[in-house]
Specification:
34% of the residues are buried. The model has no long low-confidence stretch (mean pLDDT 91). The chain is globular. The longest helix has 16 residues. Helix 2 crosses helix 3 and helix 2 runs parallel beside helix 8. The protein contains eight helices and four strands. By secondary structure, it is an alpha+beta fold.
């Protein structure tokens, strides 16, 4: 089974292309999958765990859309089938906080320690603290849906979107 580690904080590198370069370097050095998402759009650890499980299942069953495991994780986490639309879940030059996902590949990676991550993320201790507005916009959650399920169930609506990714054509 793959182990998932999730960190939240401010991006140390503001330039998106440089941040991607740092992520690729981290992947190469430690042999784990690394993906950075906009933390405002991540509703819970369960959201990321479920998306990661779905992404790895897609690869093992050869039904993945993305060629890169990290991108497949982003695709599921966004609830989108299309990679281009899934990119909205990722980081941009105006991202204030990032959710940094590290996934071991069948225990074949060595984990970076916190000091190794310091060139990428400044941990802020806030954990998962999403923006309701950003989540509703990203996952197309309507007012009617929120009224039907209740304000406290936004996580369930997001998990539902992740689960339904495979059914979209």
């Amino acid at each position: 089974m793959n182990e998932i580690r999730l960190f939240f904080g401010k991006p140390v590198v503001r330039d998106r292309s440089e941040l991607i370069s740092v992520i690729k370097d981290l992947q190469t050095r430690y042999g784990c999958v690394v993906q950075a998402l906009d933390a405002d759009k991540v509703v819970s650890e369960r959201h990321i765990s479920f998306a990661t499980e779905k992404a790895f299942a897609a690869f093992s069953q050869r039904r993945n859309i993305a060629k890169d495991t990290g991108m497949e994780i982003m695709r599921y986490a966004s609830g989108e089938r299309q990679i281009e639309r899934a990119l909205g879940m990722g980081i941009s030059d105006c991202t204030r906080r990032i959710a940094l996902i590290l996934v071991s590949l069948e225990c074949e990676c060595s984990w970076p320690n916190i000091s190794d991550l310091s060139g990428l993320i400044e941990l802020d201790g806030l954990g998962c603290s999403f923006s309701e507005k950003a989540v509703k916009e990203t996952f197309n959650i309507t007012t009617e849906e929120m009224e039907a399920v209740g304000e406290g169930r936004i996580e369930d609506l997001v998990i539902e979107r992740v689960a339904l990714v495979d059914t979209y054509r």
